[in-house]
Amino acid sequence: MYRAILAIAGCAAVGVGELTLARHDDHSAEKPRVKILSQKDIAEKLDGKKAKATTVEVTLEPGQASAPHRHPGPVFGYVLEGEYEWAIDDMPAKTLKVGDTFYEPTGCLHRVSKNPSGKNKTRVLAIVLHPHDVKDIVIPDKAKKD
């Protein structure tokens, strides 16, 4: 009985963690998949704090997009497969192709994150540097109310 409760609690904790990272989503029923590939402590400090590097693979199905969001540290990305429509802050959107890279400064608004294709999936490798104690590497952007 005790083992069963621990197993259920463990599964629930993993599920909550995956939901936290899956905030790279839009409001559709199908959400982009975010797979954590690694989390490593790094020697360098970020704004004077202990830091970590989290590497993720984001998979977007045809036409799928993420809601606007921010990250608690700089992001370095690489397009592994397909095309990736990407824009930060007020910059115009760019369509990146396999082999293209991108950089997002800490806290900027990642306002466009989309697979523009109607038939092929997109896979992006992203490395997020962030303070060691950060719980969520994706911070949903809250729309400002007038």
Span between N and C termini? 53 Å
Q: Can you tell me the residue ranges where pLDDT is under 50 for at least 5 consecutive residues?
A: 1-29
- In CATH, the topology is named Jelly Rolls
Task: Supply the CATH architecture.
Answer: Sandwich
The CATH class, by name, is Mainly Beta
The biggest sheet amounts to: 5 strands, antiparallel
Task: Say what oligomer this is.
Answer: single chain
Count of beta strands? 10
Number of discrete helical segments:
1
Question: Could you say which overall geometry the principal axes of the C-alpha atoms support?
Answer: globular
Strand content: 35-45%
Structural class by helix and strand composition: mainly beta
How many domains would you count in the coordinates?
1
Helical content, roughly?
10-25%
CATH homologous superfamily classification: Jelly Rolls
User: What is the strand arrangement across the widest sheet?
Assistant: 1-2-9-4-7
- Rg measurement, Å: 16 Å
Mean pLDDT, to the nearest integer, reads: 84
Describe the overall structure.
With 146 residues, this protein is mostly beta strands. The chain has a single domain (2-140), classed as Jelly Rolls. It is built from one helix and ten strands; from the N terminus they run αββββββββββ. The strands form three sheets. A five-stranded antiparallel sheet has the order 1-2-9-4-7, with no helix packed on it. It is globular. Mean pLDDT is 84; it is low at 1-29.
